[in-house]
Amino acid sequence: MADLVKRAARQAIAVAARATRLWPPAPRGCGLVLRYHRIGDCGLGVPADEFDAQLGFLAARARVMTAGQMAAAVAAGEPLPPNAVAITFDDGYEDNASRALPLLQRHGLRATFFVTTGWIGTEKVLWWDRLHDYIRQALAARARPLDFEGLPPSMAEALAMANLLSPADAARLEHALVAALRGIPLTPEETDTLVERVAAALGADVAEPEPYRPMSWGQVRALRDAGMEIGSHTVSHARLASVPPERAFEELEQSKQALERELGASPSLVACPGGECNQDVVDLVQEAGYTAAFTTESGPVRPGDDVFRLRRVGVWAGGYAGAFRRFSAPVFALQLGRLARRPTADGKAKAKDA
After folding, report:
1. What values do phi and psi take at 275, rounded to 5?
2. What is the per-residue pLDDT for 1?
3. DSSP assigned state of 196
């Protein structure tokens, strides 16, 4: 009951703010870059009906730009238009083309798609999706994890404490393992090896690629032909600050070359996997010929920001519910405005992903 009252109060505040137009999606002088991954009922996905409603709000209340347009304005020191918002997608999942694109076209909006070039058109399942699949297999079999040899202590400890009796238990284990993997500087190949060791400990089989498949190059070209912007997300989703500099540069350069070969134009933007974008990475990004880079640090974009460390705001399913646990456009607007205003110690805005 208390939770219902809280949600109802939040929705009432959001409706009032929207009605008076005193709480715009982004305060004057700021912009927001929204970060999506998938459209659909899946772990990283926003359901299509929610995404449709979000786009409807943005089309009516925001000035939707591409990420490249926003980065160019920041680089030139130009003021951003009122309520500037950019829509971005990471990785290159198939539903970006089959589900996101038709909805963007319906609302007359453009978006920027950062694609992992070595994954496009393959049957490979990315490591976090394989981990998700392996844990769900173990949950269905009510299996207890066995044989933790060869795993880092943080991962072995998470598996040793696992009690896979409910979806909530599975979600906790998945969260712990993902956090452990992201806390270790690894190459993509090393990450894959550890994920397969987890599969062995869980007694899991091969992950089914169909739910997790990427776009084809034909679909990436279709996005481009529809007026969407295409950027790099490296070749193999390598965390650029966690691999040797030579490998990081290859990931940036070869991804750029693949996009130029397949699309006929060289990309100017890159989204750093995992948000890793320290000064060494910035130097490599510039050396590879990119003009802007985006991180996963949450908060607004402002004139004067470092164009190679631009923030984005993660958008997730269920984070914008009204009184009755359904998506609420006013609450969505209120949350975006909150993320664009939260101060940090250095005077800039920062917030957790929604």
Report:
1. 80, 5
2. 52
3. H
Contacts of 140 (CB under 8 A, 6+ apart): none
Handedness of CA 343, 349, 352, 354 (dihedral sign): positive
Domains along the sequence of the chain with CATH = 33-121+215-339 (3.20.20.370), 127-210 (no CATH)
At residue 165's C-alpha, the angle toward residues 160 and 166, to 5°, is: 120
| CA nearest to 67, candidates 27, 38, 32 | 32
- Average pLDDT, consecutive stretches of 10 residues, N- to C-terminus, the chain (354 residues): 50 50 65 95 90 94 96 93 95 98 98 98 96 95 84 92 89 95 95 95 91 97 98 97 97 98 96 93 97 94 94 86 72 78 40 32
Measured CA to CA, the distance from residue 127 to residue 236 in angstroms comes to: 11
| Predicted TM-score of the model (pTM) | 0.89
Helix axes 127-141, 167-182, angle to 10 degrees: 150
User: Which stretch of DSSP H or E encloses residue 229?
Assistant: strand 229-232
What is the 3 state secondary structure string of 48-91?
Answer: HHHHHHHHHHHHHHCEEECHHHHHHHHHHCCCCCCCEEEEEEEE
* Cα 120 from chain centre: 17
Dist CA 48 CA 51 (whole Å): 5
How far apart, in Å, are the Cα atoms of 327 and each of 7, 52, 101?
A: 12, 11, 21
CA angle 101, 103, 109 (to 5 degrees): 80
Written as six digits, the tokens of 43 are: 């772990």
Instruction: Report the run of H or E that residue 131 belongs to, with start and end.
Output: helix 127-141
Q: What is the pLDDT of residue 335?
A: 81
The Cα–Cα gap between 91 and 333 comes to: 26
Neighbours of 287 (CB within 10 A): 12
CA distance 200 to 197: 5
Query: Would you state the structure tokens that stand for residue 214, as one six-digit string?
Result: 């990427």
